[in-house]
Write a structure and sequence with these properties.
The protein is α+β, with helices and mostly antiparallel strands. Helix content is 22%, strand content 50%.
Length: 237
């Protein structure tokens, strides 16, 4: 599925069914990409007049999996972050573009729909510097990756690390850490206990893919989240 196709599908989903409140998902991911490049001094990045551009492909979930799990595509977004730095007296701009595919399940409260559960597949480029791959999110531990998805809720507190398991993501065995936390569904004031499923990054061509999920514990959605991770597909940029 291409980003353009995904955007068209997202537009259809948003007509009449979009949850009442939505923020830009995982906005912190773009900032991560820029900060990770801050110290790069390699010749292939440091020379040249044009910006050094690194773009991810798109990681999405197969339609058949969505039918089984009842998640719906919210949107696919590109997040580009630019950074200027100096090397040997020259200034060079580096641009990193990540792609985030966000899916959700909404609940109806007071005749309005609100985003209750969210699943995100983040694709981030492997930045090549002197032949070495720099993963913009490689230095994030599981706790920090959990914070990325926690941003989809309000007043998150008591984040606690729990069980772990492994599952298949893009043909690789990926570790997943499960967390619990207290929070509110955004825009509702409704307090819930949440479960977060925080995956490891998996290599996909010239990208890395990171799966993340969160849902009210009462949903008992762990098996669906695992199926969503198993159903991730990747298309190279």
């Amino acid at each position: 599925m291409t980003t353009e196709q995904s955007d068209e599908s997202a537009a259809e989903n948003r007509s009449g069914q979009r949850a009442t409140t939505r923020r830009q998902a995982l906005a912190a991911v773009g900032a991560v990409g820029a900060s990770s490049l801050a110290g790069c001094t390699a010749l292939d990045v440091a020379t040249g007049d044009e910006p050094a551009e690194f773009s991810a492909g798109t990681a999405t979930v197969a339609d058949a999996t969505l039918s089984e799990t009842a998640y719906e595509l919210n949107e696919v977004t590109d997040q580009t972050v630019s950074r200027e730095f100096e090397v040997a007296g020259s200034t060079r701009t580096v641009e990193v573009t990540n792609t985030v595919a966000e899916y959700d399940k909404a609940v109806e409260l007071f005749d309005e729909r609100y985003q209750a559960a969210v699943f995100a597949a983040v694709a981030t480029p492997q930045v090549e510097v002197l032949g070495e791959a720099f993963n913009p999110i490689a230095d994030f531990d599981a706790d920090e990756r959990a914070e990325l998805i926690a941003d989809r809720y309000e007043n998150v507190s008591d984040l606690e690390r729990g069980s772990e398991y492994s599952t298949e993501v893009l043909g690789a065995d990926a570790g997943v850490v499960v967390y619990t936390a207290d929070a509110e569904i955004e825009g509702t004031g409704v307090a819930v206990e949440l479960e977060f499923h925080v995956g490891e990054t998996v290599e996909a061509g010239s990208d890395f893919v990171l799966p993340l999920a969160a849902y009210p514990a009462v949903f008992g959605d762990g098996e669906n989240v695992r199926a969503m991770m198993n159903g991730i597909e990747h298309e190279q940029a």
